[in-house]
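Exercise 3.2. Students should predict the tertiary structure of the chain below and write it as C-alpha cells, then compare their answer with the key that follows.

Predict this chain's 3D structure.
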Amino acid sequence: MRKWGLHYLCLLILAVILAGCGSADRNSAADSSAKQNGSMSNEAAAEVQSQNSIASSADQSTAAAPEIEAGGSENLAVKGSTSENTVQASAGFTGSDVVAGLNKKLIYKANLNMEVEDYGKAQTEIRNLVTMANGYIIEFNENMSQYEQGGTFILKVPASGFSPFLNKLEQVKHESLQRSIQGQDVSEEYVDLESRLKAKQLMEAQYTEFMKKATKSTDLVAFANELGSIQESIEQIKGRMRYINQNVSFSTVELRVYQTDESIAVKEKEEQGPLLERASDALNGSLNALSVMFQWIVVILAGALPILIGAAIILAIVLVSRKNIRERREQQAQRIRQRNKEMNSEQVIPAATEPKKEISEEDLKVSEDSEDSKKE
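Answer key:
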C-alpha cells in the first residue's frame, strides 16, 4: 500500500510540474504574438481555414467565410490596440520625420482670419506663397461692400511644408491676425481599413476558388453574388484609404483676408495731394465731363438728323395750311361785314314793319362758289 501511495504521489507531482510548464509556454507565446501585432498567427489561421474550405463541399463554404472574417477582426483588434499605444506615445504638433517614423496618419487643418491694410496687395502675396509652396487653391470667394472688401481662400499645401507656409503667411503685412490649428489622428482608422482590406481580399480569393470548383448553377450564382458584394466593399475601402492618404499628404488652410472701411479711408487720405493740385484735377474733370457731354450731343443729333428733317417738313406744311385757313376765314368775315353794310344802306322798309335781314356765312359761301364758277 505504501508503494502504491508513493507512486500516486510521484504521478501527481509530475502532472503539476507539466501543467506549470505548459501554462508558462502559453503565456510566453501569447506575449510574443501580441508584440508582433498577431499578424503571423492570423495569416496562418486564414490559410488553414482557406485550405479546409477548399477541401470541404460547397455547402460548408458559406460557413467558412464568416470564420475568415472573424480572423480578420481579431487581427484588426490587435493592430488597433497597438495603434492606440503608438498614438498615446507621442502627442502634439510633431515634425514630418517623427510622424513618418511612428507610421502615423495625421490630418491638419488651419483657420486664419487676417485684417490687412491693402487687400489687393495681400491677395497677390498669398497667391504667390501658395505657388511657391507647391499648393493649390480649392475655393475662393470675394465680397465687396461700402464698408469692407475681402475674400476667403481654401487652400491645400503639402503636409511637409504646412508649418513653414503658416509662418510665411504671418509675415504678410496685417493689422490683426487670428489663427487656430486642428489635428486629426486617423492612424487607427487606417489600420482598421488595412485589416478589413486584407480580410476582404482573402474572401475574394476564396470565393474565386469556389466558383472554379462549383458544379451546380445555384451555387455558382450564389458565389457570384457574394463575390460582387465583396469586390464592392474592397473598392469602398480602397477609396477611403486614398482619401485619407490625400488629406494626410496635403493639409487644409482656410484663410479670410479683409480690409475695413477705416483702412480704405486712411489710404485715400494718404493719397490726397496739395489743395491746388486737387482743384486743378477737379477743373480738368469738369472740363472732361462737359467735353464728353458735347460729343454725345453731337452724336445723338447726327443720328437723329433724318428724323428731324422729316419732322421739320411736316411742321412747315401744317403751319402753312393753318395760315391759309386763317386768311380765308378773315376774308370771309370781312366780306360778310361789307355785305351787311351794303344791305343796311339800301334798306327802304322801316325796321318796325320788316325785320332786318342778315346774310349768313352759308349764303356768302354759296355766292362765292357761284362767282368762282362764272369766272371759270
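Discussion points: Residues 3 and 9 are 10 Å apart (CA to CA). Confidence is low (pLDDT under 50) at residues 21-101.
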